[in-house]
Specification:
This protein has 2 domains: 235 residues, TIM Barrel (Alpha-Beta Barrel), CATH 3.20.20.70; 66 residues, Type Iii Antifreeze Protein Isoform Hplc 12 (Alpha-Beta Complex). 31% of the residues lie in helices and 15% in strands. The protein has 11 helices and 12 strands. The strands form 3 sheets. Strands 5-4-3-10-9-8-7-6 form an 8-stranded parallel beta sheet. Strands 1-2 form a two-stranded antiparallel ribbon. Strand 6, helix 6 and strand 7 form a beta-alpha-beta unit. The longest helix has 18 residues. It is elongated, with a radius of gyration of 30 Å.
C-alpha cells in the first residue's frame, strides 16, 4: 500500500512517524522548528492531533474529569486543562503541513471528532490516524474511512473483538488501505508491556500492514518491533526533553530519531530471507576454515597418523570429517609439511 507516494510493506524500509503532539509548548515557531528537525533526522512523516478542549471533553474540573492519580504524568490537571495545554491550534495545521511538504515529508493528523475530519479534508491530508482512545468510536472511524484515504489505527487497550469491529467499520465504509499499530496506552509505557509478538499475530488475523505506536523510552522496543515484522513505527518527538513538554518524558530528541531511522532500517535489512550456506561475502572466507594438512615432511609409502596429518587452518585441504578414513593409510608420494591433503595422495 501507499501513503502519498511512499510505499509501505515488508519489502520497504520501515515508515517512521514523528508525533509532535503538544511538545510545541503552544509556539508555532517551535512547531515549525520541530518539523525541520524531524525532517533532518530522516523521518517519513510528522503527525499532529486535531482537537480542541471543547471537542474532546467537558469544561469540568472535578471528580472523574480531574486527574488525581499521583503516578500519572499529568497529575493535577483536569482533562480540560490538559487538552488546552496540549492542543495544536487548528490555524497552525496549514503552515505545518506546508513546511513538511517543502521538506519532502508527509504531514497528517489524528482527528478526534467529525469537525476535525472535515477540517483535515480541507487540507487534503494524505491519510488519517485513529488514536487508541478513539478506536471504539465507530462514527469517527466510519467518517475517515469514507474519505477514501489510508487509515492508521492504534490498537491500545482494544480487545481482539474491538479491533475486529473497527476493521469491519473501515471495510464496510470503503476503506481498502488500513494499518494497525500495536500500542500500549500508558505514558511512559514499560517495555515488558509491549508484547511485540502480537504484531505478527495481528498481521495473520487481519491480513494488513502492522506497526507499533511506541510510548516506551529509548529506541530498543521500536527496533525490536521491526524484527518481528512492524512496517510502521510511530514515536513522540521533542526538541529537548530537559525543556519539558506535555509528552517530553516519553518522547525522543532529534539525534535519537536519526538513530531510530538508521537502526530500524538496519533491523529491516538484517531480517532478509531464510538462507543457509555461504552468502556472496562469505565465499572468500571459506578458505579460513579448518581442513586436513600434512603436518610433517613425509616420504612415499609412509603411514598417515594423527601426528603427521592434522586439522588446521586454512581450509584448502580435504574436510576434517575425512580424518578417520585417512588415518592408517600410506601416501603414494612424498609430501612436504604444509601440503594440503588431497585424495590423489592416497
Amino acid at each position: 500500500m501507499k501513503i502519498g507516494q511512499r510505499k509501505i510493506g515488508s519489502s520497504e524500509k520501515p515508515f517512521i512517524i514523528a508525533e509532535l503532539s503538544g511538545n510545541h509548548d503552544q509556539s508555532l515557531e517551535k512547531a515549525l522548528t520541530m518539523v525541520d528537525a524531524a525532517a533532518a533526522a530522516g523521518v517519513d512523516a510528522i503527525k499532529l492531533q486535531t482537537y480542541t478542549a471543547d471537542t474532546i471533553t467537558l469544561d469540568v474540573h472535578e471528580n472523574e474529569f480531574y486527574i488525581d492519580n499521583k503516578e500519572n504524568l499529568w497529575h493535577g490537571y483536569s482533562l480540560y486543562q490538559l487538552y488546552q495545554k496540549a492542543m495544536t491550534p487548528w490555524e497552525w495545521h496549514k503552515p505545518i503541513f506546508e513546511r513538511a511538504k517543502q521538506l519532502g515529508i508527509l504531514a497528517f493528523s489524528s482527528p478526534f471528532d467529525l469537525t476535525a475530519v472535515d477540517y483535515l479534508e480541507s487540507l487534503d491530508t494524505p491519510c488519517y490516524k485513529i488514536a487508541s482512545f478513539e478506536n471504539t468510536d465507530h462514527e469517527l472511524i466510519a467518517a475517515v474511512a469514507r474519505t477514501g484515504k489510508p487509515v492508521i489505527v492504534s490498537t491500545g487497550m482494544a480487545s481482539q473483538t474491538e479491533i475486529a469491529e473497527a476493521v469491519e467499520v473501515l471495510e464496510s465504509n470503503g476503506c481498502e488501505d488500513y494499518i494497525l499499530l500495536k500500542c500500549t496506552s500508558h505514558y511512559p509505557a514499560r517495555p515488558v508491556d509491549a508484547n511485540l509478538n502480537t504484531i505478527p499475530h495481528l498481521r495473520e488475523l487481519f491480513g494488513c500492514e502492522v506497526g507499533l505506536s511506541d510510548h516506551t523510552a529509548g529506541l530498543g522496543v521500536a527496533v525490536a518491533a521491526v524484527a518481528v515484522g512492524a512496517t510502521v513505527i510511530e514515536k513522540h518527538f521533542v526538541l529537548d526533553r530537559s525543556e519539558g513538554g506535555v509528552d517530553a518524558e516519553f518522547s525522543m530528541e532529534p539525534h535519537e530519531f536519526k538513530q531510530l531511522v538508521e537502526e530500524a532500517k538496519r533491523a529491516h535489512d538484517a531480517m532478509g530471507t531464510v538462507h543457509y550456506g555461504c552468502t556472496e561475502q562469505e565465499i572468500a572466507s571459506r578458505k579460513h576454515r579448518r581442513s586436513l594438512y600434512i603436518a610433517e615432511d613425509m616420504a612415499e609409502g609412509e603411514i598417515l597418523t594423527e601426528k603427521n596429518l592434522r586439522s588446521v587452518r586454512p581450509g584448502l585441504g580435504l574436510p576434517v570429517k575425512y580424518l578417520p578414513i585417512l588415518l592408517g593409510r600410506p601416501i603414494k608420494r612424498s609430501a612436504k609439511k604444509g601440503t594440503a591433503m588431497q585424495w590423489d595422495l592416497v
